[in-house]
Amino acid sequence: NQQATHTSSYQTKMQKPKASKGSQAKKEKGKNTVNDIIDQALGDSNTSTSSEDQAFKSATNSVLDSNPIAAIAKTLDTPAAKASLAAATAAVEPPKALNDNSDDTASVKPLTNDTTETSQTDQGKTNDDGKTPIPVNPIEPVDPDKPVNPITPVNPDNPDNPVNPVDPVNPVQPEQNTAPVLNVPEDQTVSLSHNGTFDVLNGVTASDKEDGDLTKAIKVTGNVDLSKEGTYTLTYSVTDSAGQTTSAKRVITVANDLPVISADDQTIEVETSFDPVVNVTASDVQDGDLTKDIKVTGNVDTTKLGTSQLTYSVSDHDGGQTTKTINITVYAKDASFSGLDALTVQQGSTPDLRKGVSVSDPYSATPSDFTVTACDT
């Protein structure tokens, strides 16, 4: 209501008839007084008392000098002027509470007689009225080295229950390179050979998960001499594109193959001829047929029945020797009878049991040299 009253009074004052050109010109020739400025600023406020207005006017009723702003500031810096100005300002708009947000428009804090604007150099000093202004706390500069507390996100559906921060996702670790795989045959024993060669890569392969087949990249350290007996160590290695190396070892034994003698036990008839090397042979992997080089130890008497032993031996060109022993048995053929037919005799008589019987023996000159033994049937 006070604001409306003041506005109406101000509008009424602004609608007053303008002064005549003569009087206006008369004032322009002179100078505006402080009373004119105060009337224009305060209007016809009903809240200020006439005695306060008169005191204000009489205290400031002087001609403005060349600096109007400084003159007005000097004039208003009196208790009476402050009281009158405070009353007029309160009539226009009462001060709002600090926590009153009903009006979204910006409001101007009224200037009263118990506050005084101070500069930063005046902070902490006491004003003329004995009041100390509230100091303004300076803004702390941000320390880049000081860690900042993480902000916990708020659940919009339930502000009292904050959303748990999402655990950081572990970065994907790069896949580790896989070493190559070597496939090497087991240790091997090979035959000595004067003309052959040994393929050290036969049956050896290499593969890698990233690079694929690496068989052609295999490196071998060492060699095998098939012409000399002994043990040879081969070292295989392969390296993939990432620099990982796999190695493996293999032992190759070169051995001389001993000759092989082919001879079996024999049975011969008494008083027959016997050649100890007949049907006996010898062979060697490196040297071939060695039958002519066979040596025989022992003797067989074909005139006597019984068993005799013969030992055969043979050596190859590399010094390998083989021996073998066999048994030679001398036997005789059995005699054969004829005339052994059934015989019927009279009881009480003495028959001739040799009558009509003959024997054939290749080794005896007397065919009748045999005995008869009676037996029950």
Overview in brief:
With 377 residues, the chain is α+β, with helices and mostly antiparallel strands. The chain has six helices and 16 strands. Residues 1-67, 80-168 are annotated as: Disordered.
DSSP E strands, number: 16
Q: Largest beta sheet, briefly?
A: 4 strands, mixed
Order of helices and strands: HHHHHHEEEEEEEEEEEEEEEE
Count of alpha/pi helices: 6
The tally of domains stands at: 4
Q: Supply the helix-strand structural class.
A: alpha+beta
The CA-CA distance between the termini, in Å, is 172 Å
User: What is the molecular shape?
Assistant: rod-shaped
Strand order of the largest sheet: 2-7-6-5
What does this structure look like?
- With 377 residues, this protein is α+β, with helices and mostly antiparallel strands.
- The protein folds into four domains: 2-92, no CATH class; 181-255, Immunoglobulins (Immunoglobulin-like); 260-331, Immunoglobulins (Immunoglobulin-like); 340-377, no CATH class.
- It has helices at residues 2-14, 21-29, 34-42, 50-60, 68-76, 79-92, and strands at residues 181-183, 188-191, 205-208, 212-213, 219-221, 230-239, 245-255, 260-262, 266-269, 281-284, 288-289, 295-297, 306-315, 321-331, 336-338, 358-360.
- Strands 2-7-6-5 form a four-stranded mixed sheet, with no helix packed on it.
- The radius of gyration is 72 Å and the shape is rod-shaped.
Top keywords for this entry?
single chain, 377 residues, Immunoglobulin-like, 4-stranded mixed sheet, rod-shaped, disordered N terminus
Write the layout of secondary structure elements.
Blueprint lengths: L1 H13 L6 H9 L4 H9 L7 H11 L7 H9 L2 H14 L88 E3 L4 E4 L13 E4 L3 E2 L5 E3 L8 E10 L5 E11 L4 E3 L3 E4 L11 E4 L3 E2 L5 E3 L8 E10 L5 E11 L4 E3 L19 E3 L17
Parallel strand pairs: 2-7, 9-14
Antiparallel strand pairs: 1-3, 3-4, 5-6, 6-7, 8-10, 10-11, 12-13, 13-14, 15-16
